[in-house]
């Protein structure tokens, strides 16, 4: 209850008062702060997206390129309907609630309960059902989730994670060496060919070697042989998921549509390779995370489930966020210079490096939508929300709203610097790209360390320049990705 009370103090202020409700574990009453009851409006009062008979709002989604511009559709809804609206679910009386407010987002997390549940892509849950497939933390619920999450909290969220920093630095140094050898000319900018593939391999290698506990060894060549295909097939999972957000997966499977066949094959192959990687890691008997998980009496089956999904999720999201950060820096020479000035006096954890990562996640949030399924009836934004309603924070829209961030389209890492009193410069509302609460991203500390380290090393060694001839936009592939390959130009800095 301490965490819940802390959240309440952050978001309710003086215009809220206290009432009683039954907590989500049904075991005891809890003091809970909400808006004054005289302002509470019924669920039906929430503005609703325009819906057509039979097809609901599907036409808008189809017009968005089968989900590729879903973030824009939802952002336009917020501009028209306000910070909270409901989207009818085709073929049922249910609704999705979308939020474009950091304050309402905090209220959403207050209600998440002891066993938070989040909406999952229908294609992923259907695959698991069809194949009787048990998955990792992202798919676990209730007591199974809580037990394993507590273990992984102790492993991944601790402060003295020296093994992680050692692995991150070694793998990052290898990437810098590769770029120096293959792409860097003496005087002109050279384009890093296969930028995403390069970053993806770097990200997965960090996770795999951290799992094992070393970056060198006899069996590492077995893992290295698996990584190129793994990198490609994981990207296919996300690519093939996007159309199945529009086309019902049950329909696609029943009528044997090619998109379901592609999705099914890519997930199957991804899990096969991930399990092979864990098998090799277990045989190596190293001093990495696998050993720690075994020390907590985790079964081999659970270890495989957790690590397979960790590699799939963290590899993709960390690589794309790093790519977006390089994209933003490559168009801002002055910001590159400011960061290098700080790097001359420090190591990786400089304020502007941290600000760069936070700005990248604000402008291009990998988790474009973060949601919870309310376990109890709640009040969000003065509206009464029924229990079991999916509530979704529109992270792309929140990050680009001038109500939350001044000059929202400007890349400004300095907005995340703190003054002598510890207050943020020029930030009206905090951003929460990893979510908050007990089900926030378990790999956030590791992801931040990885991105801080690689960006620092890249900026120490290279000047960056964007070489794309046409503008680069954002498209949805379940996560936010560039609309075209980013052509990153690098030039070696004189020592």
What does this entry look like structurally?
- There is one protein chain.
- This protein has 495 residues and is α+β, with helices and mostly antiparallel strands.
- It has a single domain (2-312, 364-443), classed as Cytochrome P450 (Cytochrome p450, Orthogonal Bundle), CATH 1.10.630.10.
- The protein has 17 helices and 13 strands.
- It has helices at 2-11, 58-63, 70-81, 102-110, 122-130, 142-156, 162-182, 195-212, 220-241, 249-254, 258-284, 289-295, 300-330, 333-343, 351-363, 395-399, 444-461, and strands at residues 16-22, 29-35, 84-88, 95-99, 190-191, 369-373, 378-380, 383-385, 390-394, 462-466, 474-477, 479-482, 488-492.
- The chain has a 4-stranded mixed β-sheet.
- A hairpin with a 2-residue loop joins strand 7 (378-380) and strand 8.
- Helix 11 packs across helix 13 (300-330).
- The radius of gyration is 23 Å and the shape is globular.
- GO terms for molecular function: heme binding; iron ion binding; monooxygenase activity; oxidoreductase activity, acting on paired donors, with incorporation or reduction of molecular oxygen.
- It holds the Pfam family p450.
Key terms:
495 residues, alpha+beta, Cytochrome p450, four-stranded mixed beta sheet, three-stranded antiparallel beta sheet, 12% strand, disordered N terminus
Strand content: 5-15%
Strand tally = 13
Low-confidence stretches: 1-37
Fold-level CATH name:
Cytochrome p450
> Strand order within the widest sheet?
3-4-9-6
Tell me the helix content. Answer: 40-55%
Q: State the CATH superfamily name.
A: Cytochrome P450
Query: What is the molecular shape?
Result: globular
The assigned structural class equals: alpha+beta
SSE order = HEEHHEEHHHHEHHHHHHHHEEEEHHEEEE
Largest sheet geometry: 4 strands, mixed
Work out the radius of gyration: 23 Å
What average pLDDT do the residues reach? 85
CATH class: Mainly Alpha
List the total number of helices. Answer: 17
CATH architecture annotation = Orthogonal Bundle
